[in-house]
Amino acid sequence: MEKIPNRKEIIDRRALVLAIAEIAERHSPSSFEFRRDTLKLLKKSLDDGNKVIEKRFLQSNKGRAMMYAQCFLVDQLIRSIFDIATQHVYPLSNPTPEEKLSLVAVGGYGRGELAPYSDVDLLFLFPYKQTSWCEQVIEFVLYMLWDLGLKVGHSTRNVNECIRLAKKDTTIQTAMLEARYLWGDQEMFKEMYRKYMKEVVAGHSREFIDAKLQERKERHERFGNSRYVVEPNIKEGKGGLRDLQTLFWIAKFLHGTTDISKLVELGVFTEKERRKFTKASNFLRSVRCHLHYLTHRPEERITFDVQPELAKRLQYKDHAGTKGVERFMKHYFLVAKDVGDLTRIFCANLEAEQQKMSRLPIPRLGLGKRKLKGYVVESGRINVSDDDDFKKDPIKMLELFHLAQEKGLDVHPNALRLIRQDLRLVNRSLRSDPRANQLFLEMMTSRKDPETTLRRLNEAGVFGRFIPDFGRVVAQMQHDMYHVYTVDEHTIRAIGIVSQIEAGALAEDHPLSHKIMPKIISRNVLYCAVLIHDIAKGRGGDHSILGAEVAEKLCPRLGLSPSETETVAWLVRYHLAFSGFAFKRDISDPKTVEDFVEIVQSPERLRLLLVLTVADIRAVGPNVWNGWKGQLLRELYYVAENALTGGHVSEGRSARAKHCQDELRDQLKGWTNDEVESHIGRFYQSYWIATSKEDRMVHAELMRTADKEGSLFTIEAKSDPFRAITEVIVYTADHPGLFSRITGAMSVSGANIVDAKIHTTTDGMALDTFYIQDSEGKVYDQRGRMMKLRQAIEDTLQGVRKPHLEIVDRRESSLPSRTEVFTVQPSVILDNKASNTHTVIEVRGRDRPGLLAKLTRTLFTLSLSISSAHIATYGERAVDVFYVKDSFGLKITNKVKLANIEKKLLLALTEDMIPKRKSARAKKAASSGS
């Protein structure tokens, strides 16, 4: 353990021993009073020591020193407790050879490192069989430690059991590897450790290394298999502390040391790598200690709510375009990347050592060395033939990856190590080399898994050096709940998705993208657009506009023609347009299609933009894409394609309505002529334009049945798992606030509305269609939910339930969410240009239960009628769009009225965010307990 300054300030064991002796003089050691006073003294020592350690840490930010100090404090307390047990409570005047105990620290505690709230792992070692004295002492020590509030993991074994179990269980084997004598019989500990090194370690390094590397692989898979998740686990995640510890364990097993300087002497690491190792280790330990102190528990996940405070404590300040929290997380990801590099270097060294030791006389088939275009292939991995190859010809840094991709090979860790050492050779000269740019473009657009190749290039540091603009977004996170990965990881995943669509691997999920992919004229344009679409994030401006400027400079360098460059720049500039129109505008409104087509202008651009949009959304995170989004994109694609290939978008509304009416006349078989005309006469012109042929038929049958039965309230639902949507049609007498009440009932039933269409008949009936999902973005029909929803809507319309009050009570009695750290600036945009017949209101704010119900209730109080609603959420952000008319069925053009609408909606967005005192209803519900 490293030298700890001023140890007595943390705990003075000599003074503690004297104080305990005084208590023993006052009270009998077997008395309750002795235990009470001793525990009180120990608790004070622990609390005082913890305060000193925390104060020192907050002043220095040195996690390693803090962990050593914490370990020292706990050591001294355990030794004191053991001495109390053996000298005062259970003293032995003439101990037998079996009445011996050795206290051993194992695991991280054995390593001499203890984070503020970490477990204390102890091994109680006894000679042959456990005596009653041993049991009494162990029990006393454990109960005292538990009463002090420490989390103790313990095992009680004799020497032979330790060796037997270590041989069978890798976890025990690893814990024993870090065993450290703590107190008690030292000879017994030495005997156990000698046996362990001789019988468990010696000659078994291969099995141990294989087991630890397999364990590491499984752990990475369990924690997301990416070091670029935005809420990483600092202990178990990829590139975290456990990866560093795995290296230590293997080093100790193989070389008998965990001293990083000794590993440099042995040639495992270079001096530069040693410095990187130490920096990474110190940084991760400091972050972990802050995390424990901040949460007051052994928290290992760097969650959204703690990230800003961690950044503040570690002194990361906001810079132009980048928040301090984003700078902190970028540093974290770069450190995690360094840990990955060091792991690969270490594994390469291990492999070389093992090969020297094995020296098989017969070469293994297919695993021997072979030459390939000036490179060496060994065990399916490509390496340089000479360590100076990159220095002589830097283009080989790209050529190596290109060849690996072409031949389906992995890259040898030795080559990766050399690349990391020679990265400065990826300079302006190489970046301007046409052959180097051609190699990069071929790798990115290859049909042979470009995602893996680009990830390897990124891991090696070549990607960011060769494309400096991309280098700026490496490890760049966005502090929100929507983006799951860092910008570089998101981009690489998006390129992988385009490649999978092209190969047909995602034909079932994305049938339209798969179908149009072969029609795309320039693959280079598409792949370059995916590469560049988010490249300008974190620069303090609109990343779409800034990204288009990057495209204009980068594409010619990569060998694209002027017209291809123009298309890439356009795609980057408008890469959010497709989703913006599809998710936030009414596709059935001709003005939506007109505006979209005016931006797109050609069928080729439409195809490119669709595939780019699909890849972009899908690469955001595992549960962001769903069938409903796919359906909206497909709908917009087809109407836009029709308009771009000669169809008429703005065919007269009357002509379109008449055409739809004629279609329905042909569909309604078995209806009398009077029934058909009566049904058609019940709808206004807007209904015919806003509905599909299939929907109109369903509506006709539903209304006819309900009217015949004299039903006052009809609700019909059907689910479509592919579109991930449940369509709910409500047919009832229209009255003011009906839509608001239904949205409230749906909200308290746990249904998320993603789209809604509202129609009123000429005879005062309402025909409202809602498209809903569950909280996971799937169909809403599991376990009888629809029956409960039907009942909730019926009770609300009859006045039995008041959802708006239930929502308030639920909000006030709920626990605070960890996502409350995010601030979403509320905004209201009133647009009279987006539609020829409606005022379009776009509302943005923090997403929360009951928000839609609150907004629709506000619109109702403003005497506005809603024709359609389009709801989208992006993590913590909600974007709700309403197509509205005033009470006369007209657009709202009066400036005073528009200002009042904006004011009331902003109030609705913000008033729920102010903490309120609990309502009487909520207090009553809380006090009743169930």
Description of the molecule:
The chain is an alpha+beta fold and 930 residues long. The chain is 57% helix and 11% strand. A hairpin with a 7-residue loop joins strand 13 and strand 14 (839-846). Helix 24 (487-503) packs antiparallel against helix 26 and helix 30 (590-600) crosses helix 32. The protein is globular. It starts with 6 loop residues before the first helix and ends with a helix. Residues 359-367 and 915-930 have low confidence and may be disordered.
How are the SSEs ordered, and which strands pair?
Layout: H1 7-10, H2 13-26, H3 32-60, H4 63-89, E1 102-105, H5 107-110, E2 120-126, H6 132-147, E3 152-158, H7 159-168, H8 170-177, E4 180-184, H9 186-201, H10 205-222, H11 241-255, H12 260-265, H13 271-295, H14 307-313, H15 324-358, E5 369-372, E6 375-378, E7 381-384, H16 389-392, H17 396-407, E8 410-411, H18 413-421, H19 428-431, H20 434-445, H21 450-460, H22 462-466, H23 468-471, H24 487-503, H25 511-516, H26 523-532, H27 543-557, H28 562-573, H29 577-584, H30 590-600, H31 603-618, H32 627-644, H33 653-667, H34 673-680, H35 685-690, H36 693-709, E9 713-720, E10 725-733, H37 738-748, E11 752-760, E12 765-773, H38 785-797, H39 803-813, E13 827-831, E14 839-846, H40 851-861, E15 865-874, E16 877-885, H41 895-911, H42 920-928
Parallel strand pairs: 2-3, 7-8
Antiparallel strand pairs: 1-2, 1-4, 5-6, 6-7, 9-10, 10-12, 11-12, 11-15, 13-14, 14-16, 15-16
Helix pairs in contact: 2-3, 2-4, 3-4, 4-6, 4-13, 7-8, 7-9, 10-11, 13-15, 14-15, 15-18, 17-20, 17-21, 21-24, 24-26, 24-31, 26-28, 26-31, 27-28, 29-32, 30-32, 31-32, 37-38, 37-39, 37-40, 39-42, 40-41
